[in-house]
Amino acid sequence: MDLEGARALVTGGSSGIGLAVVQKLRATGASVAVIDRHIDVHGASRSADLSVECDITDEAAVVDAVGRAHDALGGLTVAVLNAGVGGFGALIDLEAAEWDRVVGTNLRGTFLCLRQVAKAMVEGGRGGSIVAVTSISGFLADRNMSHYSVSKAGVAELVRVAARELGPFGITVNAVAPGTTDTPMFASTAALPGYRARVAERTALGGVGTPDGVAEAIVSVLAMQWVTGQIVAADGGVSLWSPIDPVET
Fold this sequence. Notes:
This protein has helices at residues 16-28, 44-47, 59-73, 96-124, 146-166, 195-202, 211-223, and strands at residues 7-11, 31-36, 50-53, 78-81, 128-133, 171-178, 231-234. The protein is an alpha/beta fold. It has one domain: Rossmann fold (3-Layer(aba) Sandwich). It has a 7-stranded parallel sheet with strand order 3-2-1-4-5-6-7, with helices on both faces. Strand 4 (78-81), helix 4 and strand 5 (128-133) form a beta-alpha-beta unit. Helix 1 crosses helix 7, helix 3 packs parallel to helix 4 (96-124) and helix 4 runs parallel beside helix 5 (146-166). The chain is globular. The model has no long low-confidence stretch (mean pLDDT 93).
């Protein structure tokens, strides 16, 4: 897909990876609408053509926000479903309310946004490209992150099913799975002694990912015309690390 002149919606576009995506899309010549719980945290309203405050767990609010973006941009041809939250807690101590908060935002919220964006694209009749942001935690077994991992695994499967259903309408649906990325969500790991250094050491390319690096992957996948239903890891190779590698010391 040629992104110049595209009409794009980015959820969670006020900070981190989402904001980096907005800036890259604008640089390609796309018009961009942002949906976020907290607008203008890092100047999102100045980076986008439209900014709408919206909690993606609220179905009515999502329907309204996507409708406003569609009307303001004159249609939707691109969507990046990036909004999400983190969580941490041992399974046996995890409160149901905390499970619902994380799964409700990351999986239910992504479903609601995907459904509305897909409706707009199908009705528009011009095809489209959708990328959801999942996580390598969706296919790794990270302790104390059961609700987060399950939510992201669900997003990956949602993408695969959506790709089959929407393909006949000329709409591609893919996902990008970041690894450890230097975003506001990652900042909470500062409380874990040595965590960042361990991640950097085990990442094939070294270091911790940046929002710009992940955004580059997202925009590249958006432009692919003959790829759908795929999950691309943008993690610098950290998910390649294996504890049973015979060379590991």
